[in-house]
Write the structure tokens for this entry.
Amino acid sequence: MKDGLRRSLLVLSPWLALVAVWYAVRLSGLVNPALVPAPHAVAARFADLLWNQGLLTDVAVSTRRVFVGVAVGIALAVPVGFLIGWFRAARQFADPVVNFFRALPPIALIPLVIVYFGVDEPAKIVILIYASFFSGVIVMMEGVAQTNPLFVRVAHTLGATPTEVFGRVIVPLTVPHILTALRVALGVSWATLVASELVAAQRGLGSMIQNASTYFLLDVIYVGIICIGLVALLMDLALRRLSARFLAWQERAGS
Amino acid sequence: MSASGLPRVRFDHVTLAFDTPKGLLPVVEDVSYDIREGDFVAVIGPSGCGKTTMMNMLAGFQAPTAGRVLLDGRPVTGPGPDRGVMFQEYGVFPWLTVEENIAFGLTLKANRVPARERAEICRRYLDLMGLAAFAQSYPKHLSGGMRQRLALARAYAVRPQFLLMDEPFGALDAQTRSNMQNLLLEILAVERKTVMLITHSVEEAIYLASRIVIVTARPARVREIVEVPFGYPRDEAIHERPEFGELRSHIRDLVMDEYRAQQGQVRPVSFSE
Ligand SMILES: Nc1ncnc2c1ncn2[C@@H]1O[C@H](COP(=O)(O)OP(=O)(O)OP(=O)(O)O)[C@@H](O)[C@H]1O
Ligand SMILES: [Mg+2]
């Protein structure tokens, strides 16, 4: 019981510290207070947006976009990254291509996306798929390329057929990389979301921030940013839970 | 466990050269010897001379450039569950529990057995190898010696006729190593196999083997084959026998000679005792 209390205090403390610093910056007089809304003002705006302006719809719309983008992007990245990572010959010519596309910032692609996909829902999701795919492919191919061939050999000496080697050795060894790819893609996708919702979105956290900036509503911008951070954090926590469950066998520093 | 005659394995003028960027690297050269039913053959030679390569050809991972490796008269074409292999690195599967590791081979099409029998076999080797308390643990919780016992149990579970062991105890401390040697002798007394063991330790070779193949510096050739004059079962006491000492100094001289020859080669290689 006492331990539980201590733990939650420990978890909360950095956040409390953050709010304290926020107040300190505002009250220090070093910055124009008009440029830094107070935490309680942001909290009030949060409640207002939540009850009166359908903030939850924005959260849901954005989350759905990220979800679909990551799901499709990773579903494509897993087989592609696996093949590139597994076959050395494929790696040699695919590696520079993948890195070329990954290096392009998604924002720079938006005009092209508008030309090819219009301004509706598909356009936004295409950008997220793009971002998830390339970050996922990199993780997969690097991970799979480092698979220890010893385990494959052991399985062969025990009489495993090629199908059995794939299903019983290679797949379990690939699961950690899939989970890492998912986590990286989720992070990248939330980061790309605002850019993707620049494409004439009516709802969504990104578009909410865009609209607020037109009218210089700083507190709304703050609410939007905090929401993005929170949802991304929750998704990451869920994934980490999942990893801990599936990957209990892994040796990790500090566990 | 005296060798009962029939040659099961024959290295027949086996030669192997690796195709490297710097040209052909001859690693095994014109090696010929037999492993008979029930033999325990130890192979000893300087580090990097080609011992693992030799074993890989019998395991079926590598084909000779010239000559043949015959298994019951037929050339080896690939790995199979008739030849259990213990690798130089522990090859236990980290994503499976200790028990699942042992059961792994028994769940493959090649040697599938009913679940009940599988559980019995697992139990038997968990007990034999002293791993029962760790049946549900992942290998990350095991010590080096326990991992090696697990690898041995997993190899034994599919009932191979041959056991190929590549410096299985090389990474263990002296006490654990000696325990493992005794465990191996015990389990071989119960379930006999035809064994090929690669080792760097002259004592280990004499203590365990019925015959010792001493190979030269790279490329590996057969320098001498020594019959070990002790029968089975054996115990630690044979270390004190005068024949043990004589054999040891004879083999040690040969090995040191080859070790020096290897050092004289262009590329230096490390020698681990
Ligand atoms: N696939 C390969 N391609 C090229 N060269 C190789 C390959 N495998 C091994 N070699 C070389 O062949 C030589 C013999 O290697 P091998 O692993 O058989 O030696 P070893 O006698 O088992 O050594 P150690 O006692 O250190 O384990 C080494 O010089 C090694 O660098
Ligand atoms: Mg070796």
Summary: Strands of chain B lie at 7-20, 23-36, 40-44, 66-71, 74-75, 83-86, 162-166, 194-199, 211-215, 222-227. The pocket of adenosine-5'-triphosphate (ligand 1) is lined by residues B 18, 20, 25, 27, 47-53, 88, 218 (CB under 6 Å).
